[in-house]
Specification:
This protein is an alpha/beta fold. It is built from 7 helices and 5 strands. It has helices at about 5-40, 80-85, 95-100, 165, 175-180, 190-195, 200-205; strands at about 55-60, 70, 110-115, 155, 210. The chain has a 3-stranded mixed β-sheet with strand order 2-1-3, covered by helices on one side. The protein has a two-stranded parallel ribbon with strand order 4-5. The longest helix has about 35 residues, at about 5-40.
Length: about 210
């Protein structure tokens, strides 16, 4: 049986149409598959925090206003930790803090910071972990670690001391501590009277507790 005349006349066009339809279906299928794959790709923002910039966790206890475990940026210093904990409490041994702790020291993840109370017997207390070499790992104690004031004499260096360290000196207070910081450096401790306007009676009380070296 012969094909109808119209089929014979248009068979080439019909064949091209069928081929085009098949190619169109294949193209649509590929596009759908590609879209599904793209939707499974996780796009990470350039601002997303990396593991290297994760927070550090520090345990703060003792004579601070708000003892507890704190999360801070990895660049945090000891002073930042104490600020997060509400600062030193009224019972804190400020002389001990000024003499032994370096408030500018960086803190490692997992550190423990203990601030003793005034009059606390650190040598006998079972609650104070007073290790000479574990500040970076983390116990705050008397050591040569960066957390500790490196002045072996125990004197407060008025050229490098923090505001809190200066404030712990008799008769200084926050205003005079700021005046000392603003007028650094000092060649001699006597310059406190001329440059920072520290009264003579205050100077006489603190001169044996300070240094410029």
């Amino acid at each position: 049986m012969t094909a109808p005349i119209w089929l014979q006349q248009y068979k080439f066009i019909i064949l091209l149409g069928l081929i085009g339809g098949i190619l169109l279906v294949i193209g649509i299928s590929q596009a759908v598959i590609s879209a599904k794959k793209d939707s499974q790709v996780e796009i990470i923002s350039k601002d997303a925090p990396s593991e290297s910039s994760a927070e550090i966790v520090v345990d703060v206890s003792g004579a601070v206003e708000k003892p507890g475990v704190y999360r801070l940026p990895p660049s945090a210093r000891l002073n930042d930790i104490l600020v997060a904990a509400g600062g030193l409490s009224a019972s804190a041994d400020r002389a001990w803090v000024s003499r032994f702790l370096n408030l500018a020291a960086k803190i490692n993840d997992g550190s423990k910071i203990y601030i003793p109370s005034a009059g606390e017997d650190l040598g006998k207390s079972t609650n104070v972990q007073f290790s000479p070499q574990e500040v970076s790992g983390g116990i705050a104690g008397v050591t040569t670690d960066p957390l500790i004031n490196n002045n072996a004499s125990g004197l407060i260096n008025i050229n490098t001391a923090s505001l809190e360290q200066l404030d712990s000196l008799w008769g200084i207070g926050a205003v005079r501590a700021q005046a000392i910081v603003d007028n650094r450096p000092f060649a001699t401790i006597d310059e406190l009277k001329s440059k920072a306007k520290i009264p003579n009676n205050v100077f006489e009380r603190i001169k044996d507790q300070i240094t410029v070296n």
